[in-house]
User: Fold this.
Amino acid sequence: MQTSSAAKHDTFAEDVLKGLSSTPKSLSSKYFYDAEGSRLFRRIMELPEYYLTRSEFEIFRTQAADIHAAFTEKSARFDLLELGAGDGTKTALLIEHFLARKADFAYAPIDISAAAVATLTEKFHAEFPDLRIAARTGDYFRILETLKTDHSHPKIILFLGSNIGNFPRDEAIGFFRRLRAVMNPDDLLFTGFDLRKDPRVVLAAYDDAAGVTAAFNLNLLRRINRELGADFDLENFSHFAAYDPLDGAARSYLISRADQSVRIETLGRSFHFRQWEPIFMEISQKYSPATIAEFAAASGFRVERNFFDRQRYFVDSLWKVV
Assistant:
């Protein structure tokens, strides 16, 4: 029987093979976050160009009372379930406010990574000793399905940040429909969307002057070298970002600077790159309030309220089941 790490290694190799064998070539952004990738992303979040994290922080700092009121409109007691909580820094702002108001709630971070859940649980136990935590590890939808039979009080599902922007439209609606299928009528969904804005502001966020985003993207080649025995020369690839204001999509690529071949030993084959050939890395979709309402309606929800930052760069949208 394969160990979990061996299975993950095989999946990584299979996804790299699929991506580099396709036309155009691509690599999955879900593999960005090894230890170095996570460190680089923390640096990205601190960059002056990267408005996304600051905007959502602002919403939570300045509107926590209004968010709490919206969460408790139908029931003073609720369960707060967070999908992919990360380090919990943003969520901590809400939790701190809720505890200060003596709110009757429990918090359940849900993640496929047991290590991530354990780290967050330990952090929150230390930071909020009065917080009731019921962490869960595994697939989002399977866990939520097991909780659906509990009708005693509403569940509020958090899907924060701009994670939904990494999904193409049909996949995003499919994701929300799957959430709707495991929610009860009184449950709420609270989810983040990056909004359309000056294209120059968007583009700068994905192509910062210090080159941290470039290093973040190139680090995936370094990971393939290390884990799959590849011989990517990072000097022969450069980061390129583009934003299309027509479809609201920011896209990231790595561009081959030379006509070259790269050998990946684990896959037992080489891949040829033409000079200036792109590898598609990631999409980050930007939305309008009208599109968000359309997504909600197409998924079995209704927008109850939108919480914007002062520049209207970002929104956390509260959805009700219909």
The longest strand covers residues 104-111. The mean pLDDT is 93.
